[in-house]
Structure formats: C-alpha cells, structure tokens
Amino acid sequence: MPSNRLPDLVCPAGSLPALKSAVDNGADAVYLGFKNNTNARNFAGLNFDEKALVDGIRYAHDRKKGVLLAINTFPQAGRTADWQRAVDAAADLGVDAVIMADLGLLDYANRRHPGLRLHLSVQGSATNFAAVNLAHQEFGIRRAVLPRVLTLGQVEHVIQNTPVEIEVFGYGSLCVMNEGRCWLSSYACGESPNTVGACSPAKFVEWKKKPGVMETRLNGILIDSRGDTESAGYPTLCKGRYEVNGNTYYAIEEPTSLNVLSILPDIVNIGVRAIKVEGRQRSPTYVAQVTRTLRAALDSLAAGAERYEVRQEWQSQLTRLSEGNQATLGAYSRPWR
Amino acid sequence: MIPRFQLPAFFARAGRLFPQWPHAAGLALALNAAIAARLLPADSLALLEGRSFLVVVNDAGTRAAFTYGGGSFRPLLNFRSEPDLTFRANLSAFLRLLAREEDPDTLFFNRELSIEGDTELGLVVKNMLEAIELPKLPKFS
Description:
Number of domains of chain A: 2
CATH superfamily of the largest domain in chain A: Aldolase class I
Number of helices of chain B: 6
Radius of gyration of chain A: 20 Å
Strand content of chain A: 15-25%
Oligomer: heterodimer
Mean pLDDT of chain A: 94
Strand order of the largest sheet of chain A: 1-2-3-4-5-6-7-14
CATH topology of chain B: Nonspecific Lipid-transfer Protein, Chain A
Low-confidence stretches of chain A: none
Shape of chain A: globular
CATH architecture of the largest domain in chain A: Alpha-Beta Barrel
Number of helices of chain A: 11
CATH class of chain B: Alpha Beta
C-alpha cells in the first residue's frame, strides 16, 4: 500500500494571492468562487471578479494545477438566471470543474455544457452511494464531496459502490456539518449559506470587550462571553455557549478544526480521490501553511506508507491554525461504533 | 521571522504620554501609497468612505485614528469619539500580520487580535489587505 494513486490536494482560494499561495505550496487544485452569492463564502471583499479569475486560471494552468469553481448555493426565487449565468461564465472561462449543490442547476449545466466537469458539492448533502449514483446517472457528476458526518468505514463503503470520484475534507473548521440543510444562521439572522452564501454574515456580528470578558452577539443574541485567556471560534450559533439545565457550555458544538494527519494512510488506502482543505475566508498565509504541511505529509506517504509518521512540526502547525486552538478526527473515528 | 514578544509594561505607560498623531499620519501615508500603487481595489475602498478607524497597539500604548474619504486616507487628530472600527493587538502580532507570517483568523482564535465596532467593515478591511499582491509592494530595505 498505497495501491491507489495519491489523492489530489484541493486548497481554498479567497483571493488571487491565496490562489498563488496554494499553487506555490503544493496544491494539485484550488477551489474558489465568484464575488457574489452564487457561492457559500460570499463575504465582503473576498472572492474573484472575472479579471482575477482569468489571471488565477492562467497562473494555475501554467503550473499544471486545476481550478474548481464553487457555485454551491441554491438559486433564489425569481433569480435562477443569475446562477445559470455563473455556470455559463465558468464554462466560458475554462475552469476544470464546477462544484454545485442544486439539482436544477446541475441539470442545467449538464444539458447546456456537456463538456463541463461537474462535482457534487458538500452542500448537496449526499451521504450515501445511492444519492451519489443518482446524481451521476441524472447529471453525469464525476466527483462528490462527502459531508463530514461519515466514519472512515462508511466513506469506504461509498467508494466501493460508486464509479464517482470521492473527495473528503482533510483539514479545516468544523460546524454542525449539516451542510446544505442547516438553517441555524437563518434562525438568528434571517440569512444563511443556502440563501445568501454566508453563515452568520458579518453585519449581524458584534464583539464587545468588557472587563475580563469579550461578549459575542449575533443579531443581538448573546451567544458567548469569553474570558480573556479562552480561545475563540467563529461567531456562529452552533459554536455558542448556552445555559442548559443550569450548566453553561458548548451545548451544540465546540469550536474546533478537523485534522486527518494521523489517519492519512487509511484515507489514501480506501481510495479517496481528493482531499479538501476548508477556509476560503482565510488569508494567503493560512493557505500557504496548511498546503505546505499537507503536501509534506502526502509526499512522505508516497515515499512509503510503512515509514509514514506524523511529524511534530506538522501537528503543531495545524493545531495552531485551528479554530478554538484544537483539532479532532471528527466523525472519521468513532471507535464506539 | 518576527519573534513573538510582548513589550515591557513600561512602554505602554510611556507610549501614552507621547502625541499619537505621528502613528496615524504614518499609517495614512502607507495606505495612500498603496492606493497610488493601485494595490487597493476601488470597490472595497468605496465601502470605507467616511468611516473612522482606530488601531491600538496594546503593549506600545499607542493608538492611530484615521479615516478614508475622497480617494485618500488621512489621520484623525484629537479623535475622541467612538470609531466605526477598532483593531487591537500587541506590536508583535501586528508585525507578524503585516509580514504575512500569521493569519488574522488564527490571531483572533488565539485572542491576540480583537475587532470591535462594525464587523462587516472589519471584514472588508481584512480581505482588502489580504488581497494585496505582496511582490508588487516597493521594497524599503
């Protein structure tokens, strides 16, 4: 082992410098989005206009790296044409694949642009091989990104029962992992990734420093009050601390990041085709640091799985970048199952 | 590599005794140089129009208030009111951030950087600075 080829390392790019960071530090492909609500990281000042995208595609392709474009939000009533135009633009610009979640949009892309490679987004919430295979039969998807709710064994079961390439997350912020179906942000703000392309949009977030603590409010709702030495996470409902039966704690999810370094040989062995890094909202510095670390780990694996060992410097680098300063194997490892 | 350090408390006490406008003037000058070099996109700059910003260097005891309007940044002298946006960190964190040795979200998670005021404005500023292509910056050394 590994009998399979090394999976592609797919890294996030929220800007042109981030794209270059990813490519220069060993990504096989980058994923990115347009500067609008057709993608799930629609934050102010982030993402690519057409010129930046043309430059980015050229930079990546000149170095034989791929560019995957996320159009992974859901078309809103009366504005389907905006999403279809994004698909047309993607095809015209020559991206290597489009990552999509909406069934109607997948159908549109499949009919209108038969040559365009389609990936099923994690927002598409396909957690079993029947769902993946249906999207393959109906829309010709070539790859599916699995939600972060499956154990390694379950991922393997999907891979064994589908002709579709499987991409899984390897590193990055975790949430309640109900992607594409989560309405917690809408519950607090009236806006969510599915509708406007942003979870807990910044205009609803307020951090207030008080003596000894920092209060976090989301649309006026107090979601956390942190001591000055406690590490922090993103200001989402799922990572807030609430009083439940007299105890105040992370009642839904602790701020944490996924990190698969310790099970990388298993991920490669079961035939995962691509490993994705979360974080289009983060800086070129983050992209460089994570990409370099995972590239080193994958290359070390390629040199011989039996000698693979997680190096201390990889682990400390990734833990330092982690949300809440802690990392986990998430659903991949559930020894109690 | 910029080391992680914290200035002795003396600096914070002494820093507050000196006039603060040179810091603001220096920062405004640097940002205007970035505009002149076309490093800052017009669509992001437009969102800063008329807004006030405060950068506080905790361990140096220094603060710089400035605003953007009519195509350039300028220092706000004797700024006393509530700014639209405040960034606070120690000198080491700001330097590591500027040198792109550190990711701002990481600093935030580690509680080394705080953002108060209009969070969306903060995101505009953060993403605007992150999108600058560093090799194009003039070399000072």
